[in-house]
Amino acid sequence: MLFTMATSSRSAVLFAEARTLIPGGVNSPVRAFRGVGGEPFFVDRAEGPYIWDVDGKRYVDFVGTWGPAILGHAPQVVREAIGTAASRGVSFGIPNPLEVEMARTIVEWVPSIQKVRMVSSGTEATMSSIRLARGFTGRDKIVKFEGCYHGHVDSLLVKAGSGALTHGSPDSAGVPAALAALTLTLPFNDPDALRAVFSANADSIAAVIVEPVPANAGLYLPKPGFLELLRELCTAHGALLIFDEVMTGFRLAKGGYQELCGIVPDLTALGKVIGGGLPVGAFGGRREIMDYLSPDGPVYQAGTLSGNPLALSAGLAQLREMERINGWKVLEETGAAFEAGVRRALKHSGRDYNFRRIGSMFCLYFTGAEVHDLASAQHSDKATFARFFHGCRERGVYFAPSQFEAGFLSVAHSEVDLGEVESVTAQVLGSL
Ligand code: KE4
């Protein structure tokens, strides 16, 4: 089933040229609509909860550039901060005060982080975290969970989620078998599998990396006790626990999901929100671990644009604004209102569904089965999801173009927007 844009649309013309110049016509695979069919539209501009495509069509946006747009798109405080910073210089490659201010903020807001290093993407944050864990422990094996996505790091592109899953290549080509063999994968929410992997690998596991709320196979939640058991086993076996909070950090709470669940990881990977839409990632944790990093320690890690003044200005402005307005309270209220509307629409649809939400992150699966891991998420009816996605897109509501992604709300989504989305959702569900 193909959903094609009008051939005369500027998006179609742009995409045709893009495909001759850029692999798949996109700079990141999930943007190619392969999970839902059809061709992507091209965006012209974005503001608040809205995006406009190059043909002038407006959408209420629930992707939010995959998480960074927590205040909505192009918030004034972020635009002003970027302008002010740019007037003083765009990049230095020399220590600058903003790096100290961002590090101080992260350390204050996330108590498990005693020292932090800035990088330029979530991938760099997780890649550096696992290298640091291997260097600190002197061990080689990494444990991850099926369907979790931690960026396109060789060691972590094993049974990965997000675009890898959408494109049916959870185990990417180009990753040497010898390296992939050092990555052990488990089903999420499976305590027996967790105990077994530690029993079988005792003291050779350097780290377990986990999305504490997996949001790259849609969205599902940790079962009670699962993360607590993970923490206990890592401690007992001298393995480091790495929370990948690139998506959940500073979004689900001021201190990220670890503030809500009360579990203290050894390292945390961060990104998205802390860049205000510009390229930023970070990783941090216990001082004794972080001091293993060059130039003090033997684990090398570096980056030309790490701590870039524009990116840090944008991120700090966004974090400050979230704190000023208590954005986390606003996001919970908005999320609850959004969920109520979607559930009213679903209730009348007579369809099997599984709607999951935590704070401002959500996912709608078209399956009546409980979704708690990758295998159950894959029971969702992807063809129905694709029809739902395009039906909403045609009516000006933009959800993530894949069943295996999460949706994001911002503080800019108003009651009017949510009312519009409830009406559109009801119409589309009724037409499937
Ligand atoms: P980046 O390298 O894309 O900045 O971050 C990688 C990453 C790490 N950890 C988690 C939990 C993530 O979700 C991500 C990236 N998220 C995807 C969306 N599922 C980015 C979208 C894309 O790949 O284009």
Q: What is the percentage of strand-forming residues?
A: 5-15%
Unreliable runs: none
CATH architectural category of the largest domain: 3-Layer(aba) Sandwich
Ligands bound to this protein structure: ligand KE4
Order of helices and strands: HEEEHHEHEHHEHEHEHEEHHHEEHHEEH
Overall pLDDT confidence:
96
What fraction, in percent, of the residue positions are helical?
25-40%
Q: State the helix count.
A: 15
Q: How are the secondary structure elements laid out?
A:
Elements: H1 10-21, E1 43-47, E2 50-53, E3 58-61, H2 76-86, H3 97-109, E4 115-119, H4 122-137, E5 141-145, H5 162-166, H6 177-180, E6 183-186, H7 191-201, E7 205-210, H8 226-237, E8 240-244, H9 257-261, E9 267-271, E10 281-285, H10 287-290, H11 309-325, H12 327-347, E11 354-358, E12 361-365, H13 374-377, H14 382-394, E13 397-398, E14 407-408, H15 415-431
Parallel strand pairs: 3-13, 5-6, 5-7, 7-8, 8-9
Antiparallel strand pairs: 1-2, 2-3, 4-10, 9-10, 11-12, 12-14
Helix pairs in contact: 2-11, 3-11, 7-8, 12-15, 14-15
Ligand KE4 binds next to helix 4 and helix 5.
